[in-house]
Amino acid sequence: MADVFTVLGHDHTEVKRMLDELEAGPTRATGAGEDALAARGRKVQRLITEESKHEAVEEEYFWPAVRRLVRGGDRLADHAVAQEQAAKQVLDDLIAAQPWQDRFEELLADFIADAREHIAFEEEQVWPRLRELITAERAKELGRKVEAGKRLAPTRPHPNTPPRPAVLKAAGPMVGVADRMLDRVTGRDRD
Ligand SMILES: [Fe+2]
Ligand SMILES: [Fe+2]
């Protein structure tokens, strides 16, 4: 059974791969045609889905553990959650933008830079501190919760939902179901 660092690490690797791919283009400015732009739009929607699920389960399960176990954990968690909230706002604008609009590329470029900084903060500043203190058993249990939580987690950013674990746990599954229904109706879940 994978521990929480492995589970979240897989997500980070996948998100970073998507960021590299999107950064490489092509974009409208570098000559992408209609099909390539449509594919770019779908990739961005996939990125938004992955990112929304990932941050939601971190906020439900990971940051509470950091706050509880790490000395200065509140400061670390507050900083990271603020980064996550700012990113949700960008993604909420991006979800409605079209890949042929300048605004789409501006929002995406902002998100790419912020996401890399956020992932580096988690992996370099937070994970080593938590790793020292968490038991192997608890790390596995958290990994299980994070993995299970992702199955019903929101697939859209919801920047106006307070990022508090109790609120997310209460609202998360219903929001996740509603998101998936909307994704189905709008075709957002189609590759
Ligand atoms: Fe995060
Ligand atoms: Fe993360």
TrEMBL record:
Residues 145-168 are annotated as: Disordered. Residues 156-165 have a biased composition (Pro residues). PANTHER family: HHE DOMAIN PROTEIN (AFU_ORTHOLOGUE AFUA_4G00730) (PTHR35585:SF1). Residues 7-130 form the Hemerythrin-like domain. This is Hemerythrin domain-containing protein. It holds the Pfam family Hemerythrin. It comes from the Bacteria.
